Amino acid sequence: MTVNFNHKQSAHCENGVVSNLLRFHGLEFDEPMVFGIGSGLFFTYLPFVRVNGIPGVAYRIWPGQIFKRFSDRIGIKIERKKFSNPAKAMDALDQMLDKGQPVGMLTSVFFLDYLPAAYRFHFNAHNIIVFGKENGRYLVSDPVMETTTEISYEDLARARFAKGMPEPSGRMYYPLQVPGEFNTEKALWTGIKQTSDHMTRIPMPLVGTKGMKYLAGRMRKWPERIGDRKAILWLGNLIRMQEEIGTGGAGFRFIYAAFLDQAGQKLNNDKLIDLSKQLTKSGDKLRDFAYYAGRVCKNRKSDTKTFAELGDILEECSQQEQAIFNELYEVSRSK
Known about the structure:
The protein contains eleven helices and eight strands. It is of the alpha+beta class. The protein has two domains: 13-177, Cathepsin B, Chain A (Alpha-Beta Complex); 184-332, no CATH class. The protein has a six-stranded antiparallel beta sheet with strand order 3-8-4-5-6-7, sandwiched between helices. Strand 1 and strand 2 form a beta hairpin. Helix 3 (65-74) runs antiparallel to helix 6 (184-200). The termini are far apart. This is Butirosin biosynthesis protein H, N-terminal.
């Protein structure tokens, strides 16, 4: 069965899937609102967690949490399932499609054959929507794509059960019930308060703005501590996590700034609008960091930076965001 599904492209997969699923069910929330109410912005540096031998870094909360937090705050009942058997997972998907229910799911980018080869790598937390089936092929709304596309049974099954961390395990999800009424103001302030709290007040040096500062300090010492070759490899992975995987650091700042601007207008709060502009500047600074780091990785001799200078840029971002999210916390905690 194929339904009339309205696909809209987005910057980040989980935000886009949530927004597109809810639109199908009659709720209009764009990507910044989903990301902001769902408290998606975060930062963590995990030197003791290695992926292919490289320390882990994330600019967002764990996959799935944006939808969970957003749903809790708006009052949406979500059905979530995971499977140990690919055939049973595909049968469950077919059953939902037969009912006319589009389904969100976690997949591995590597097995999504509709993506250009250059963009297919082993990343197992990409969200897509399957909304129908025609001639044995599944119809896909992938938020990073301009239009809808399709995929074979075999490739979709592989994408849903790829090995690695995290394992998708056939996970799929969809709204069971959406509210007729909800408290938008409360949801906005709850999302803002949690984000600002987690960015500034978790008493650990590896998370939030403290984590950015900690990484800046470690980065300055990479060449002498681990050697030039490995330092370049680690730096390249950091850029990839920031600019390619799940939108990353700078892109998330721009999305969250758009959320603050919208929230400021809805709540008639000029402070939120001003902080939105400040966060945009932090996003610009992170883009500068990625530009100069990329030149270091490509060994471009002109207009380049040392690892110490790259650490200085990242620490400046940390200081800017510490001030921004401190203000946001003070504004939101009384609401």
